[in-house]
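Minutes, project check-in

Agenda point 3 was the complex the collaborators sent over. CS summarized: two entities, 463 residues total, and the question is how they sit relative to each other. Sequences were read into the notes so everyone works from the same version.
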Amino acid sequence: MKKEYYNPEDLKKFSSITEWNKELGEKFFDYYSSVFKEGHLTAREKSLIALAVSHVVHCPYCIDAYTKDGLQRGIEKEEMMEAVHVGAAIKSGAVLVHGVQMMNRHDQLSM
Amino acid sequence: MATKSLKAQKSELSNTQRQLEILSNGIFQNGKLPTFRQKLKEHSLPQIQPQKLSILQINVGYMCNQVCAHCHVDAGPDRKEMMTRTTMEECLTVMETNQIETVDLTGGAPEMHPEFRWFVTQIRQRTSVNEIIVRSNLTIIMANKKYHDLPDFFAENEVHVISSLPFYKRGKTDRQRGTGVFDQSIEALQKLNRVGYGKTNEQLKLDLVYNPSGAFLPGDQMAMENDFKKVLMEDFGIEFNQLFSITNLPISRFLDYLIASENYEEYMHALVEAFNPIAAENVMCTNTLSVSWEGYLFDCDFNQMLELKVASEHSHIRDFNAEALEQREIQLSQHCYGCTAGAGSSCQGSIA
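CS then shared the predicted structure for the full assembly.
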């Protein structure tokens, strides 16, 4: 067993998850490829959303994949960073909005 | 950014034998990745066979006014190799006596060849070649007063201009091709538009070539074309016909970059993983022959740069024999994965 939890080589083996459960694995990959097709949103827009979400869910594999995907689509680094900030803003907002719960609880318990 | 060719720097990678060793050793020798021949077998594809020749791609010399970071020719101002008029005459004889649909002139910057204009007009006057392509780096048009009228010359001879423009924004273009290249390219494109290029006139076609500025594969050609058209029109009022998306092949300066940036294995893995059997059936070496400045024949311009001559007794333009050459076996190595990845890649863009 390797000492690291994350190994960049593992990203290339992603499709091997179907080996242990063909049906669910294939359903996932079918769903995944359908999601990223051009639709009401362009594939380019979806790539930027995926990049932002990759950061929010702290997935190094996804960050690797969608940075490269963005480069291939001609997405510029400034656009990528703006997308990451959108993710970061939502993540920090989600933390901070819980401050209201803290305030409510504080006031409820305080004289 | 380098200002000298690998050859002038006496780089290890200016040795084509060394390049071929790198492409055959390591990950391809230890079985981590299949060789190109093994991959064809895996997909039950036959050895790539030449079909009827329709394109003669002539490299008139390696001199160029630019030293691009990805250049597979290792071209630059310090490259002095240049086709002689005798060899040009031999090329003209082949065009006169064979049915060559298209002549594709490349370099270096082909326009820098002192006999360039003579050669183009001779092809038009003496042969029945339908299409003359000139692969122009655009900046040459702005480089010196003597080149300023090239757009008029191209139009008079109904030359199909195919121009490199790595991106529609200044930053990426200049990083790959040198500071100031983007602005000069824009000016050159506007000049070409002014004489009628890139619009509706079928005889004045202006196509652009996009290639990735880094260790990644090109995206969808049509989507990129839409982006290029939109931005170039909105920002600069520029029109063009088609965008050709070309994969960087792991040879010469791009191989040097891949190794220096520690991206070589990952890039080769990406090329192998993206192998597309449909693209493999349409690779350009099936209908194209590449002629070097010395008159030798190659399956493609990339093989020319690796000094892999056609596997035939008729390996020089003066010994040209269409029938015999159609029977040759195409020379393959792992750089061929560059033409079969994803939607495939050729000098005319995607092939699948």
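Noted in discussion: Residues 221-236 of chain B form the longest helix (16 residues).
Follow-up: revisit at the next meeting once the mutant set is ready.
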